[in-house]
Amino acid sequence: MIVEVPGYRLAEPLGAGATGVVYDANRLADGQRVAVKVVHPELVDPQYRERLRREARAAAAVVHPGVVRVQEVGGDGNNAWLVMDRLSGPDLQRRLADDGPLEPVEAAELLASVADAVHAMHEAGVIHRDLKPANIILNEGRPLVGDFGVARQLVSLESSTGFDLTGGSSDWLRSDAPAGPPLGAMAGTVAYMAPEQWRGDPVAAAADVYALGGTLFSLLTGLLPYDRKTLPELAYAVAILPAPQPSQYGVPLAFDAVVARAMAKDPKERYATAADFAAALRAVGSVSAPPRTALNRRWLIAVAALVLVAGGAGAVVAQGKGAATEELTVCAEDATVRDAPRSRTVVATVYQGDHLTPIAPRDGDSWVHVRLRDGSTGWALTDFVRHEC
Fold first, then answer.
1. Cys bridge to 146: 68, 108, 185, 358, which one at CB 3.0-4.6 A?
2. What percent of the chain has pLDDT over 70?
């Protein structure tokens, strides 16, 4: 990574991602404070630089109060950089981490403004491709879409993770395959990617609409749209599972339909434009709900843990009294039962249509403790064994 950009003095990094590092900087000509994003050199080739310049010019032609302005784009050799307005406010990911989820009305108003800005960029022929809370900056309380990059080509999953998604085998999607690489910090980038981006299909405005839907879910709940620990688990959820429902976390029911349509698997079933998404948000934004106390994330996790323990204890007591327990059905073609959550040790293989008895408590939302017909026990992924297939 270079640390020199002609005409600018770079200071400390403001953040880093899959495609580059953003620095606080001063322009030498007039002393103006700006933000400079330096793209990772290994991602840059002549075609990339030309595409970056072309789309930067298109983005710069759009004057919208909700878009971080790109002042300049440059590069030489294997280097490329973008010069953008320097903002002082936190991004929404930081806001969520510090203060927890937003009130529904606030989330609707804020993200509708973001969708308006995204629509303006779409009208100029520029697709963001990486919308997420971390790329929405609060500047004096007003949200601005940043890191259009500008509409850069996302780093492929293969180069980001070293995990082969195109080797001609689907074993990585099977429940008995190795867990694959942990998501870690990469979750912030891939968690909001539309199914067609995972497949490597051409990306259109509908991919940004999908990301807006995932961002809405996160703003309402403080959680990722699909909270998984490994790339295969996340890929399966994005490709197969229905959109997450904010109402499961105390959010007004009307928001479920907005998230579901925005995050539809088929791009043609999503909102036709980001402006349509904004209109839908404004329509449900007036839905009243009891105000939720602004709890920080640690407190929310603590409360959830207490509820989980209490619920698990209650279930054990109920089972001890002979209460009926609804069985789980294996929904996948086949699935494995492990000796512990996230373990690689398989104790049994079960097949589509088999029935398992759940044992409380569950290990979060990803794994469930089950008893097999022969009396043996183990842990299964909730994606593969459910009450209804």
1. 68
2. 70
Is residue 293 one of the residues assigned to a domain? no
Per-position DSSP letters for 113-142, written without gaps between them: HHHHHHHHHHHTT---S--SGGGEEEETTE
Residues 115 and 259 in one domain: yes
Strands 20-27 and 33-39: antiparallel
| Catalytic positions, written as ranges | 130
Nearest to 341, CA basis, from 311, 377, 292, 294: 377
- Note whether 229 and 365 are same-domain residues: no
Q: What is the pLDDT of residues 231-261, one digit of tens each?
A: 888 889 999 999 999 998 889 999 999 999 9
Looking at the fold, whether 120 and 216 belong to one and the same domain comes out as: yes
Q: Is the pLDDT of residue 206 over 90?
A: yes
142 and 166: one domain? yes
For position 277, what pLDDT does the model report? 98
Round to the nearest angstrom and report the end-to-end CA distance of the chain.
48
Residues in Cβ contact with 341 at an 8 Å cutoff, skipping those fewer than 6 apart: 363, 364, 366, 367, 379
Total domains in the fold of the chain: 3
pTM comes to 0.65
What is the pLDDT at residue 361?
A: 54
What contacts 283, CB < 8 A, 6 or more positions away? Answer: none
List, in order, residues 6 or more apart from 77 with CB less than 8 Å away.
none
pLDDT band at 188 (very low <50, low <70, confident <90, very high): low
Looking at residue 159, what is its pLDDT? 38
Token readout for 51 is 């595409």
Strand partners, 347: none
Please check whether residue 96 lies inside any domain of the structure. Answer: yes
| End residue of a domain, out of 284, 313, 343 | 284
Alpha-carbon torsion (59, 65, 67, 70), positive or negative: positive
Question: In whole angstroms, what is the distance from residue 190 CA to residue 234 CA?
Answer: 9
Residue found by looking up tokens 């509908």 in the block: 206
Domain limits for position 64: 8-85
Q: Quick one: 280 and 334 in the same domain?
A: no
Residue 37 annotated as binding?
Answer: yes
Write down the pLDDT at residue 84. Answer: 84
**pLDDT of 167 higher than 50:** no
Which one, of 108, 235, 71, lies nearest residue 166 by Cα? 235
pLDDT at 380: 84
| Phi, psi (deg, nearest 5) at residue 25 | -155, 165
